[in-house]
Amino acid sequence: MGLEFGRMFCNSVNVIDEYMSSIPEHWAMAEAVTVLSTYSTVHYGLIKRAHLRKGENVLIHSGAGGVGQAAINVCKHYECDIYATVETDRKKQFLINKHNIPENRIFISTDVHFNDEIMDATDGQGVDVVFNSLMGEKLSTGLMNCLRLEAGGENLRYIFHMDTNTGTNFDFNTKPYSDILVNDLVANVIKGGKVGTYRHLKLPNGYDKCLSNDYYLNLESNRDLVGLQWFDSQCHIPMGPEKIYPDCLLGFEYVGRRADTGERVMGLEFGRMFCNSVNVIDEYMSSIPEHWSMAEAVTVLSTYSTVHYGLIKRANLRKGESVLIHSGAGGVGQAAINVCKHYECDIYATVETERKKQFLINTHNIPENRIFISTDVHFNDEIMDATDGQGVDVVFNSLMGEKLSTSFECLAISGRFVQIGRYDTIDEKQLPINDSIRDIQFTTIFMDFVIMNDSHYLDEFYDWMHKNSTNNCIKPLNYTVFEAKDADKAFRYMTSGEHIGKIVVKMRDEESERTAITFIRPVPELLVSVKTYFNPNKVYIITGGLGGFGLELISWMQSLGARKFVITSRSGLKTDYQKFIVNRFMKKYKKYFMSNLIVSTANGLTIEGTKQLLNEAKELAPIGGVFHLALELNDSLFKNITFEKFCSTVDTKHKIFANLDQMSRLLDYKLDYFVVFSSISCGKGNAGQSNYGFGNSLCERICEERRRDGLHGLAVQYGPVGDVGVFESSSNETPFASTLGKQRILLCCDVLDKLLAIKQPIVTSYITQDNSNETKQTDGKQKRIIVELWRTLGIDPNSTPNDTTLGDIGIDSMFATELRHELNRDYHVQLTLTQL
Ligand SMILES: NC(=O)c1ccc[n+]([C@@H]2O[C@H](COP(=O)([O-])OP(=O)(O)OC[C@H]3O[C@@H](n4cnc5c(N)ncnc54)[C@H](OP(=O)(O)O)[C@@H]3O)[C@@H](O)[C@H]2O)c1
Questions:
Q1: Ligand 1 atom at minimum distance from 718 CA
Q2: Is 50 exceeded by the pLDDT of residue 521?
Q3: Least confident among 50-59, 250-259, 345-354
Q4: In this structure, which residue's CA is closest to atom 40 in ligand 1?
């Protein structure tokens, strides 16, 4: 008799001598062959590796199977107390009759609560050895990862059998299964007939990128130019009040072709306009005059609308008046020069450099003695000289600080001062805005407010634009073009202050036809970042949504388009913060955004409750996704935990998720998202959280299964979160405190944004605690910077609470800008104004 590696169903074979033995004389050959793989597995597993001792308690799974019966015989020989599981009542009867196992020691393994019965039968002691062959849901990687970190856990090994279409009777004497025993492998996964394991692998570079020809430009979360990226915009937020893109404020002007008529159009919007396709509001749009190219047209929009509104509508510019135009070589400055020329005005201009001065002389024919360098703060004297001490009728200003007050002094009696944009950085006392003696009119213009508040203004502007597009009043400005792929270069060029006129980012070449055309050429494909948008017309279910993480998740999802939510909770609104968030949602968003939020107490642990939950959601809209956050923590070492507590943690995770999976599959559409918030405790293990690890792991199996079935499924194993949720108030006593840092909730959301688009069903997101010297040095440097900062502000660093922020002491944006430059220059610290 012997064991070999395959090809053994045959009538003659060459075998290796050492793998062979004679058959004991009292066994028939047929009997002998039943002994080989079964008893060798028992011998190696129970005797050689588990060191089975006489009289021990042993739980044998699949007791009626070949290996199971062999184990029973061996354990009987060792006078052990045997407990067994079987799959059916027939097999139970077989063990009673054939092996004399008492009925109350045989359990049906399909009932997942057999462990309760075993604990009862052993007077709560449990068994000494588990000889296991159960797979799938009965065995969980998270459970094992946690148990292995508890006392005695080093003895545990597991096999997770993923192949549902093959049996679980592995022959551990043949490869690849024999490798498990030979190499004493701890965590084994069988998939596609192969033995492997679970490992955490880094997501490949570019995991959050895809090739797309539908994209828009935005800043990553760091809100700095380094974060400038093209994002995939496959999912558009529709028209109407939903069309607000709070996450993207880049780009207000656009030109392109209407998808419905093919006509060339130009328009202004509120952000997200560096893109190749967009839903826009009709009233904010106009046709492009035929003699302008699209690139020319786009230079006209914000520049001439600012000039029209500021100089003509507000300052009532009159023919022949004298006007001082600051930043004359800029886009708005040049537009103002063209319009003022049309009004036959006396033009004075300032520029920042000699090069720009030369440009105004050459391109706009402004006499040299009427152009002043604005860095010299005494330009007012020169202007007063040039106007024989009268001053100018109108100042069109974009300068700040001291230069702003200097400009104010250039005004003639009854002059008008038009300020473009913010002037909050100046001390009002320095600027006699209500200068009644000189009868000065001061106007500040914010074009975005104008467009938002006066729905007819753009009609008026477009009308004026068309009328003046051929008489030299409105002339497209000079511009520099950058291809979409070089958008970052365009922005850097702009911040360098080198440019003259406008900078245009080109998405695609314009067709030679200026008439309407039906075929609109697509833009070239670009490698872009993936981006999540939630459909405002669908409803999202968040279980445990009133918890720490859930409440923040709602706001984040809202910022990405989600408008309708069903939040589950066992008992509804309790804390003031929960009430505040929900009230704010209902008061602020319900009417305007057609948003809705229901707090449901439907019991997701039952099928009936799950049906009720889905019905409540369906009444609002089709269901877009499920985010499973419900959590009941009952941390305890495995040996100390009660069965009830163990199960209620597992069930809150697994049963609710499994019920939602099962019932949502019955819908006649697929969900876009089916996500469980799992934990690093499951992925890496954490002593005292075996139940939590178990529950999470079972949810992860559901995600894998859903992916196999072509459905969405994602488990994110988060590390401990610092600012909200279960670890919020536990200073540093989180699991893995020495190795893992606490993750900020916003970071968790940013990560989710990308993870929702990936293919992998299980991912981990955590930050490590960097205990290296380098960090300590950086910490020291940071402290020194903060001390320096307080000193600069005249504040005693020793008496300043650590949590005081620059906002608390009332930092203004001018100071913030200077501070930013100083920090960069002296400490090489790159901070954005928002961060400051
Ligand atoms: N916070 C972290 O550091 C962290 C780290 C990794 C993973 N996670 C995961 O993120 C999720 C949210 O965590 P969290 O910190 O926000 O927890 P949390 O503040 O405790 O919130 C969980 C919520 O679940 C609700 N809940 C419990 N049993 C429920 C049931 N049967 N049906 C419906 N709701 C139930 C509870 O609300 P009621 O009492 O109102 O029912 C509780 O507010 C959890 O799944 C957790 O595993 C969190």
A1: 6
A2: yes
A3: 50-59
A4: 569
